[in-house]
Design a protein that fits this description.
With 951 residues, the chain is of the alpha+beta class. The protein has 20 helices and 47 strands. The strands form 13 sheets. Strands 13, 16, 17, 20, 21, 22, 23 and 24 form an 8-stranded antiparallel sheet that branches. A hairpin with a 6-residue loop joins β43 (893-898) and β44 (905-907). α4 runs antiparallel to α14 (337-349) and α9 crosses α10. The chain starts with 14 loop residues before the first helix and ends with a strand.
Amino acid sequence: MTAHTPPFRDPHLPFAKRVDDLMSRLTLDEKTAFLHQFAPAVERLGIAAFRTGQEALHGVAWMGPATVFPQAVGLGATWNEDLVRRVGEAVSKEARAMRARDERVGLNVWSPTVNLLRHPLWGRNEEGYSEDPKLTSAIATAYTRGLRGDHPTYWRTAPVLKHWLAHNNETARDTSSSSVRPRVLNEYDLRAFRDTVEAGAVAGVMPAYNLVNGRPNHLSPYLGRHLRTWTRDDLLVCSDAGAPSNLVDSEHYFDTHEEATAAALRAGVDSFTDHGTDSSKILARVRGALEQGLLTEADVDAAVRRQLSVRFRLGEFDPEHDPYAGAADTAADFDTPEHRALAREAAEQAVVLLKNDGVLPLAPGARVAVVGLLADECKLDWYSGTLIHRSTPLEGLYERFGAERVSFAEGVDRVRLRTADGTFLHVLPSDDAPAEARGTEGALDPALLAGRTDLPPLTTDATGTELAIVDWGEGVLTLRAPDGRYLSVADDGFVRASADQPGGWVVQETFRLEPHDDGHLLRHTGTGRLVQVAADGVKVAADGADDTGAEVFELVVTERGEDAVTRVAADADVVVVVAGNDPHINGRETEDRTTLRLPAHQERLLRAARAANPATVLALVSAYPYAVDVESLPAVLWTAHGGQAAGTALARVLAGDLSPAGRLPQTWYADDTDLPGLLDYDVIGGRQTYLYFEGTPLFPFGHGLSYASFGYADLTAEVRDGTVSVSFTVTNTGEVAADEVAQLYVRAAEPSVPRPRRELLAHRRLTLAPGASTPVSFEVPLSALAFWDVAHGGWRLEPGPYALLVGASSDDVRLSTTVTVDGEPAAPRPVCERGLEAADFDEQSGTEIVDRTKAAGDAVTPVTGGTGELLYRACDFGTGVAEVTVSVAGGGTVEVALDGYPWTAALSPATPTAGPYDYVELDGAFTAEGVHDLRIRLRGALRLAHVGFSG
């Protein structure tokens, strides 16, 4: 250091003082420029450019080759925090190593996703860890600790949690509102974020596209009220891509972008991800907001300060002191033998054995038929890196059993497409070198990667080309040429066999066959246009063209997939059917699933295999649960798409080289009729997830079998010093070494409000040799037994008995005991003093929660202007009231009644208020004394914010 070194360059000063000094040196224009995702350099101060955001969900993504670990839901299925921490550490080391050779690789990583897997039809199910807040936060905390590193001052990478808040639908995701009652908000959706942030390895969050209670998440008052109270660290809030513009363009929440940008900044958004690398629009909006008095320089300063805090923690200003800058070495930290071994270990630990009647593990020397659409696939998803190594189930079984003992049938239907003039679609041969895999070059936004135009388009000839056709469900098809390339459509509209795999933001490799006269029209789903045959090649119709030029095809089937499966299955000792999904088709970001069922094509293959050979094992490789008929199958396994080592891992489990010990991180429902509505976020009222579901699942939360068996004994539990101490012993009573996941649940035995049927408190993954025993103990804070008491607006530990349940899943309870805890008894609602906030109901029907104002607060309204009812239990009217006052907006009627009594008050505005936020107070006669349940009925397009009592 010299006398001329500014304080912000002094590594001996606290970061806060250095940020203060740097802020004092920046002009308003320079600070404003930092608000966009791509913050420019400030050359006069020697400050480099910076961008927020680097995808790293299960490996460094979008930047070319990297180690690819199992999908996040697969990491959740390991129930192993130590493993996931090591995965996070490996990912962050690769991020640093990749940045050393490519400065476009960012260190502010947008990962992990802690949205709870409330609904299994959510298209992004693969990105979350679990339906349970406790398990989600445990796995997320482990991953963020690995990403952060263990240095007390500097961070290897800076993790940002996604997606704040209550976000489980892709359908209308930027305009739909999640109605989240206070209990669900506090006990469920916020809890996973809170526990992870409080663990101390989180740099920020990303708000989700959706609205919560009628207000866009990018204006969430909970960012200030909750998030930033959970830690002393400055948290950087990064918008999701394009979401700031959505506030005006799709959500119409504001009339101008200046208003919207100002509101988001004041709510706590610090970095605006919008318009790609072009920051001009966002900066113009900020300047306009400043000029109009919608923002102050202090508002800008607060956001910039938080960004700079993260940059200091990443060591940007102290390269000579940052231990991770000097250690980032491409050879030592990228694609290392240790990382490859870790990828295999993670894939192995993610495999869940769902059912086994003794056919597994496979006998040594068995003749194995491997069949199915995913048998020879190693699928990637939208947030994967590019594979350096790959292993499919077929390759893994070849390696393990020898190619001479393994037979294969993919099960595709093989067809030729005949045109109206009798010719067939023909794929011209291509002698060029294979193209690089999509994404190999590294793209900050892979949605911008274009299809190939250097290959010849399809033509027609007298014999045509046999194509492999797969129906991935709901009529969505892929067509593949004999050389393995998928038919795809590039920007010029021609159809070519040009893609190694389906992929991209808008998938260009899927089609639909639409019945037409005696044949079919072929519609390209990416463009929505019909395929036609022209003199210069096969192409899709021009934009805006009618259907008159579309070709009518006859589908000539040369082989049914089930016939090929039957042939190989009949000659094998055991059949392994590998079924599941392609992560880019039917269930992905932007697209929810519509059913739990396997696609009909794969059901056909499974039935054919089972009919030909009763010893049929179903291996599901998927990003989400399925509802399958398992009664006639001797064995069923599930694993998420397991990354680069997926095939090897699955083969080793099938062969018995290790015992499976993955556990389901979410409930597998038996049928679509068991599911709530996709947009029903009330897990309590809707009886959702294992916490509240009252039906019989196909497989319960926490389920997973082993090749060993385990005994549980010696359960003790004691309440002392604000904790519940639980201990027991687990013994491997089997004949092989294996892992067991011991799980501890709680159930309130005498609850005064609906509580979970059982709730995970703690878990531990153990490794035990045959005959070995180990003690297991947990210290659980009594606060973990509390619930959010809407009557008083806070957490309350209810006194009384609590059942403690120990076992191998939420349903497989081996030991139980009961403890009695002291707590705060229930008290009636003090409605005379505080009145009632409308959203603090105990039960409701036909209503939804909406925004009271654009900035804060909740109100309740009937769904679509109909009729709804609210119930508030145990309201204390004291010695008596004579009048009720309601705060309402809009037009309609509020009716009030006690217990089961008739409606005694009906209040309506004389005319509807001017807007949804223009509240008026209406008074009416209402008599009550003592403690009663209160019912309120709402009719019409009316918002109720508050109810008061007097007299």
